[in-house]
Structures are given as structure tokens and as C-alpha cells.
Write a structure and sequence with these properties.
binds FE2/S2 (inorganic) cluster, Ubiquitin-like (UB roll), 322 residues, alpha+beta, three-stranded antiparallel sheet, binds iron/sulfur cluster
């Protein structure tokens, strides 16, 4: 059966079995989505894919809405964009959006401090040094000439005392022979144009626990979000021009609580937006716990054998990463 719908000003032939988002994306319209992934089981929850049904005036989730003959869909008006932005803000209101480490955000040379220290912790000296060399193309530009704002904002300082960042960077440089300055040097700068990290504060209990448990040789907490590279939430928030959510509640979930879950994956509950993709697409793996505001996504230890590495791709945020 042939069926046509109208998307914005264009008449589109619908293919059998398609949802609205699939028809729209196939024909060149760009609709964001978080709780939807192609060829995966999903249920609408985020409303980031909202479009307007012009006949009823209602906003509908295009990831589950099925096209109906003669439908007129608006994907780009101000109303639609504002509905999506509001949905993103609501998600961010309960999210530990510490995408970038504070030290990296303030470094005047754009050095990815957290990553350099991470490489150092892992004995990956060459990679650590290459990061530093890229930020300081001229040897005289090293941390020695800097006012060290990174140590002033270091989150470890709220737990006991800041990480000795300058000393660590110099230590790395001493262990490595100088490299020639990279061609086309570009001061990286933390991704400030994107959604600006909110940097969740530690509760007193978290501070206590971190004091007892963080024992890496550099003492760095590795504050940046490990899954930020593929995070759609951050990307859409940046595109929507959101700097801070208007509804700025603190996340109830503990910061930096990361679990290794097998298949080379990690899970960080504070970065979860409860979209359910991991639940619907892992047999007896992830599951919902509780209901309403306190609902959480959990992975019982006995279910870890059922985790497949595709979940890192499906997860729209940095909650599951490899
Ligand atoms: S704990 Fe590490 S990542 Fe966090 S601010 Fe301090 S140096 Fe940066
Ligand atoms: S999950 Fe995304 S939005 Fe959240 S902290 Fe990580 S990068 Fe930022
Ligand atoms: S862990 Fe990721 S995929 Fe699972 S519910 Fe949370 S955000 Fe969605
Ligand atoms: S992507 Fe459609 S409701 Fe989340």
C-alpha cells in the first residue's frame, strides 16, 4: 500500500514498517534522538525526537509514532526546537554533567591534564608526553611560566589537597627526551563551545569514601567523563546552545562510581539518563530498579555474563563505555 505524508514542505512516500523518525532521516531530515537506536529495541522516554503533528497541534515522539496517510509533520519550527531543548534541559537537571575535568577547562594551554595524568598512571609515558608536547610547542612555554590555575580548581582539593599537577607534568617531561614541535600545532582548549560541564560537587560521604579509596600514584580522581567522546546528550546540548540547565538540581547518584562490567565495558550510573536501551537490548543483563524519581538502572553481579559490547554503542551518554 502506497502512503504519502508531508514533512515540512515536502511530500514523502512512506515505506512499510517505518516509524516517523526513520522516514524523516531516510529522506534527509535531521531529527535528534537519545532513547532510540536503529535496529534496537526501544521505548520512547526522552522526547528529544519530538515533532509536531500539524493537524492536531500535538508534539509526538517520532521514534515510535507511525506515519498515517495525509499526516503533516513539522520537524523544524521554533515550537519543535523549544520542546526538544526543554527535554534536554530536564534530562540535564538530574545529570552529573562533569564532561571535562576542571583542571583541563582552566589550563591556558589547553592541555588535557586529566588524560596526561591517566597515561602516566598507566605507564603510557610516550602518549602522556605527546599530549604535553602538543600543548607546549615551544619548550619555554612549560608549566613553570604558568600561574597554575589547574591546581586551584582541582577536585581532589575538596577531598584532601590538590593533585600536584605542575610537578607531575614536569616529571613526565623529565622522563622523556624532547620531541620536535608538531607541525600545524593547534592549542586544543577544552571543548568549551560545547555544553559547559557543571562539575558535580562531592557530598561529605563521597569525600570520605574518595579519601579512603583513591590510591592511584598521582592521586588524580580522573574527573573527566570517560565516555564523553560518543555522548549524544552532550552533543545535542551543545547544538541547542544549552550552557546550564534551568532546572539545576544535583544528581542523587554518587560521583565517580564506576564498575567494570565485563566484555571490556564500564558502567557509570551517574551518567545514565534511564533511556532503557541497555535493558531492552541485553537479555537478563541490565534492569530497572524501583520506580518514579528514584528509579535506577542497575546491573546485578550475577547478570554480568550477559553483557555484549554493543551496549557501549547503544548507550547515548557516557554511562556505558569501553
Ligand atoms: S583530580 Fe585530576 S582530573 Fe580532577 S581536577 Fe584534579 S588533576 Fe584534574
Ligand atoms: S555523559 Fe555526556 S553529558 Fe554526561 S558528563 Fe559524560 S559527556 Fe557530559
Ligand atoms: S546506561 Fe545508557 S543505555 Fe542504559 S539506560 Fe542508562 S543511558 Fe540508557
Ligand atoms: S528518541 Fe524518541 S522519545 Fe527518545
Amino acid at each position: 500500500m502506497n502512503m504519502n505524508i508531508q514533512i515540512n514542505d515536502k511530500t514523502i512516500a512512506v515505506r512499510e514498517g517505518e516509524t516517523l523518525i526513520e522516514t524523516a532521516c531516510r529522506t534527509g531530515f535531521n531529527i535528534p534522538s537519545l532513547c532510540y537506536a536503529r535496529d534496537a529495541v526501544h521505548k520512547s522516554s526522552c522526547m528529544v525526537c519530538a515533532v509536531k503533528d500539524c493537524k492536531t497541534g500535538q508534539m509526538i515522539p517520532s521514534c515510535t509514532a507511525v506515519p498515517v496517510e495525509g499526516m503533516q509533520i513539522d520537524t523544524e519550527s521554533h515550537d519543535v526546537v523549544m520542546t526538544r531543548t526543554l527535554s534536554l534541559e530536564l534530562l540535564l537537571s538530574d545529570h552529573r554533567a562533569d564532561c571535562e575535568a576542571p583542571c583541563t577547562l582552566v589550563c591556558p594551554h589547553g592541555l588535557d591534564i586529566e588524560r596526561a595524568i591517566y597515561y602516566y598512571d598507566e605507564n603510557r609515558l610516550e602518549e602522556a608526553f605527546r599530549l604535553i608536547a602538543a600543548a607546549f610547542p615551544l619548550p619555554e612555554l612549560k608549566c613553570t611560566a604558568c600561574k597554575v590555575p589547574c591546581e586551584k580548581v582541582c577536585r581532589r582539593g575538596t577531598v584532601d589537597k590538590p593533585v600536584a599537577i605542575r610537578a607531575l607534568i614536569e616529571e613526565i617531561c623529565e622522563k622523556y627526551p624532547p620531541l620536535p614541535a608538531p607541525e600545524n600545532h593547534e592549542n586544543r582548549k577544552a571543548d568549551k563551545a560545547s555544553f559547559l560541564s557543571r562539575v558535580g560537587r562531592f557530598t561529605e560521604t563521597e569525600k570520605k569514601r574518595l579519601k579512603e579509596t583513591v590510591t592511584t600514584r598521582s592521586r588524580c580522581l580522573h574527573c573527566a567523563c570517560a565516555g564523553k567522546k560518543g555522548c549524544k546528550l552532550r552533543m545535542y546540548a551543545g547544538e541547542a546552545g544549552i550552557k546550564r540547565s534551568r532546572y539545576d538540581a544535583s544528581s542523587a547518584l554518587p560521583a565517580m562510581s564506576r564498575q567494570e562490567i565485563g566484555s571490556g565495558l564500564w558502567f557509570e550510573p551517574a551518567k545514565c539518563i534511564k533511556c532503557g536501551l541497555c535493558v531492552y537490548n541485553s537479555d537478563n543483563g541490565f534492569t530497572f530498579k524501583d520506580r518514579g524519581f528514584v528509579m535506577q538502572i542497575v546491573l546485578p553481579p550475577e547478570n554480568r555474563a550477559n553483557i555484549n559490547s554493543r551496549l557501549a554503542e547503544l548507550c547515548p551518554t557516557g554511562a556505558i563505555y569501553s
